[in-house]
């Protein structure tokens, strides 16, 4: 899109749009010295996306992952309500016959309803497998715009084999769709700024709101993109902000008409904040909500927000220690799962990117999104599936780090160092299990 130009053409223009001519000449000479194969010297997004999506749609249903989680029945109920013509008003399974209007974000149930309409749960899982492959292809395209084709292929391959991506593609949950939208919104933003396209920024704003409707964490995309655009030029921020507001505004208006209260997105924010503040399990909050339905959705939301703040004020040291622990878990891939080997490798390669000045300047926007996502998780909760939604930034930074090291120290040395680091991460993950 972006003024009827395909993404392939945008990517080919990327170096001239984002870097100075001196940098382009320097890196072109280095790339020539590296003698990359012809098929690696370009990153054709359309063919890569098609092949990756088809592979994802074929692989995911064959992984045998249990598609149901504790939240899946609620998403299914919302999807059935949409297909029955009742809109986003539905009976929350955890509350019996109690009718809710905005307890869940509305975006993922629309995707789920589409999958059910096309064939059921199997179709949904296949579609999510395709989204997983598409997300990897889009991340590669973003790396191309920020550095070059070599980094693009690295980002694509690492994200495509990322274990948690395949795991979440097999579950009826919103994390994977949200991640893909986050990558796409960032890519369109960077491409639009590179071409000085206000129309492209309007598309970026629309995509950002769609991501927000899939998961409330989408605010961690909108904030950093808005600030980054304001830093670039006030016109960019104005167009982006106006589209975001216009696309979002109908939802709180709809909520006010149904619940007679201002609900910007969902009525579950207070419960999530209370769980994050107290460290207690979510079922405790759900049980309280089920036994106090007379408070109504907005009333229960306000109650939990007040209790979360009250607990934090009464136990500042405990909450502070919990925040510090969550911050560490959000940054460092700690755990005993063997599948963390790739995350550990990407984390260390990302540190190399942060050590190089030429990489840091290109990671301002993705880094801002990662920091905002981390802050959001620290305030609410940190778990593997919440952390997954921002791990694409780690993969992107790792790809830029490897690409920059190849330019600075040579392809052969970087290849040996990368292989050694990867084997070390595999060995540590196999031993520490």
Describe the structure.
- It is globular, with a radius of gyration of 22 Å.
- It contains 24 helices and two strands.
- The model is unreliable at 1-18 and 20-34 (pLDDT under 50).
- The protein has one domain.
- α5 packs across α6, α7 (121-146) packs parallel to α10 and α23 packs antiparallel against α24 (411-431).
- The longest helix is centred in the first third of the chain and has 26 residues, at 121-146.
- β1 and β2 form a beta hairpin.
- It is mostly helical.
- The relative contact order is 0.11.
- A two-stranded antiparallel sheet has the order 1-2.
- It has helices at 7-12, 14-18, 21-34, 45-59, 72-83, 107-118, 121-146, 149-160, 163-169, 175-195, 198-214, 219-232, 234-248, 250-259, 269-278, 282-291, 296-314, 316-331, 341-355, 357-360, 364-379, 384-388, 391-409, 411-431, and strands at 90-91, 99-100.
Show unreliable segments: 1-18, 20-34
Overall spatial form: globular
Number of domains: 1
Radius of gyration: 22 Å
How many helices in DSSP terms?
A: 24
Distance between the termini: 46 Å
What structural class do the secondary elements suggest?
Answer: mainly alpha
Please estimate the helix content: over 70%
| Strand order in space, largest sheet | 1-2
Can you summarize the main beta sheet? 2 strands, antiparallel
Mean pLDDT, all residues: 89
Beta strand count: 2
